[in-house]
Design brief:
The structure is a homodimer. The first copy, chain A, has three domains: 44 residues, Orthogonal Bundle (434 Repressor (Amino-terminal Domain)); 126 residues, Response regulator (Rossmann fold), CATH 3.40.50; 124 residues, Rossmann fold (3-Layer(aba) Sandwich). The longest helix of chain A has 17 residues. Chain A is elongated. In chain A, 41% of the residues lie in helices and 17% in strands. The N and C termini of chain A lie far apart (64 Å). Chain A has a six-stranded parallel β-sheet with strand order 2-1-3-4-5-11, sandwiched between helices. Chain A is of the alpha/beta class. Chains A and B meet through helix 4, helix 5, strand 2, helix 6 and helix 10 of A and helix 4, helix 5, strand 2, helix 6 and helix 10 of B. Strand 2 of chain A pairs antiparallel with strand 2 of chain B. The structure holds a DNA duplex. Chains A, B: Keywords: DNA-binding, Repressor, Transcription, Transcription regulation.
DNA sequence: CTGAAAGCGCTTACAG
DNA sequence: CTGAAAGCGCTTACAG
């Protein structure tokens, strides 16, 4: 790899002048600019980003933390983040926090900082109060918490409403399958569901299920199949398992009960029946996260959380 | 962020000594080592990786190129790569080449090199002969080509054989749905299928289908549904679309025809019938790619391609 | 408009 | 075992 010195020597100027040219400084005569640019092209000189970073403390690199790439939801968020970063000339340093424990997060942030990243995009987690991060940071997949962290929040309130409206007033008892309420996003959505049902005077059952075993979770729900005519599942995978379990029990969907998933996984199109669900627009979540981070990096602060709209998708598991 | 100078001053030694200690050099007295280590812990000093990289030309960063994160297959490969890199203390700089055109690839490689990455893991593409890469490079999702590129190759020969054996000698005419044969991996697999069928004296039909429209591809295949009793689909998504199209035409699987996918997508478990398929072990592909790259970086060369075993998965779309 | 010099935070010969 | 110095490849005041 050739360096700025090589260019300077070949063009017969100082390295300072070359530096001015590759940084688009206006204080260069057109003649020398032309001369130097020709040499740059000729030897295909690429400035060493590492040296630049060392001086400028700007790496044009963003650190990203994701819980799990096997989950399409997160994969699409990354996709959205990248689509923005690439356009703006930023690179992405990506880490996976398989079990999403806090220690892992802090380690990753440390690693990022060693590499002088300009900002961090991470799934929501509790930032220890002691950690006073100078690095701009955005959290996605977060609940709508009002602190001074920039949060990208799926509109869980509307998500709950949309689920209920997908039921088309055809439900008389609703089973809400959910993950533990200590998860803030779960709480937001369940509260919204409960609110809506109360408004409509429709009774409901809350069923907390395991976080890692959708098959068992389906059994837990269908044990009580005589007590509801609609199920709102944790997400699409959980809904798909409920379909399988219903087949085993010879229950028809939506005739015996309507079923609603969450996330609009590709899967929804291929089950029988296809699954009505809520699209969280993960790509848009990612894009929004990236835009907000770049804003923060460029000094544009805004204390508001970004609320991302959700879209109900009607398929054959509801009327 | 504190620097090596801060540590040196606080510990009353030179920066050279501090450097020796953070690099585990043996030539340091236990007393000074202890003294310095205490300071390091006290002020939570983290060496600046960027400065280290500038001097050493080793960044402990790997550049990774993926065609598409929305495809679970690639997402799992990344997962495998990361699991190894993280263990070895490497970071991953990731780029997405949405349309996988060659120019994109070369741009990404350029970007990587500006950041002094130590090596590259990329999906297979034609390296221009002019490009003489000094950087270690490994290609995954590649055909078994014999040049001096380190390639990670799915065992497409066995993949073809496994498809045929999933049919359990119950097929008399086989429809092979495939992408264009100009794709080397496609060619490998189709050749293997044809070989096997010839050996067994089973007639077959080759049907080339669109690369982007699985639904249309399903229609193209089922137009000829009276002419076969087994379909080997491009992959699991294509197989799932064939199931949907068969439902529309009131055809039963496997009674009217057996069906085989490829990739072992989660989807396979949730269709009716569930889909028999071939698992390419994408996580293992990723792990192998990472291991081979680290070997290359550490000077352990091997001209052989790594062949990754595939695993047939029997479900209900075959007998 | 241009160049010599200092400095970003490290590492590593070199000398002692 | 330890430190002063040079250097990795850049950028940016400073002086002219």
């Amino acid at each position: 790899m050739s360096t700025i010195k090589d260019v300077a020597k070949l063009a017969g100027v100082s390295v300072a002048t070359v530096s001015r040219i590759i940084n688009d400084s206006p204080n260069v005569s057109p003649a020398t600019r032309k001369k130097v640019e020709r040499v740059i092209k000729e030897i295909n000189y690429q400035p060493n980003q590492v040296a630049r970073t060392l001086y400028q403390k700007k790496s044009r690199m963003i650190g990203i933390i994701i819980p799990d790439l096997n989950n399409r939801f997160y994969a699409q968020i990354i996709d959205g983040i990248q689509s923005i970063l690439q356009k703006k000339g930023y690179s992405a340093l990506i880490s996976f926090s398989a079990n999403s424990n806090k220690k892992n997060y802090l380690n990753f942030i440390n690693e990022f900082q060693k590499n002088n990243i300009d900002g961090i995009i991470t799934a929501a987690f509790d930032l220890p109060a002691t950690l006073n991060l100078a690095t701009p940071l955005v959290m996605y997949d977060s609940a709508n918490i009002d602190d001074n962290v920039a949060r990208i929040v799926s509109d869980n309130i509307k998500g709950g409403k949309d689920c209920i409206s997908l039921l088309q007033n055809q439900a008389t008892r609703v089973m809400i399958q959910h993950w533990p309420l200590r998860l803030p996003t779960v709480r937001e959505r369940v509260e919204s569901l409960v609110n809506e049902l109360n408004k409509l005077n429709i009774p409901y059952i809350l069923k907390k299920v395991s976080e890692n075993d959708p098959e068992k979770a389906a059994q837990e729900v269908l044990k009580k199949s005589n007590r509801f005519d609609a199920v709102i599942a944790v997400n699409d995978i959980y809904a798909a398992e409920i379909i399988k379990e219903a087949q085993r029990r010879n229950l028809k969907i939506p005739a015996d009960f309507q079923l609603i998933g969450y996330d609009n996984n590709v899967l929804c199109e291929y089950t029988t029946p296809t699954i009505s669900t809520i699209d969280q627009q993960p790509k848009l979540i990612g894009q929004t996260a990236a835009r907000r981070l770049l804003d923060l990096i460029n000094g544009k602060k805004s204390s508001q959380n970004s609320i991302i709209n959700v879209i109900p998708i009607k398929r054959n598991s509801t009327y």
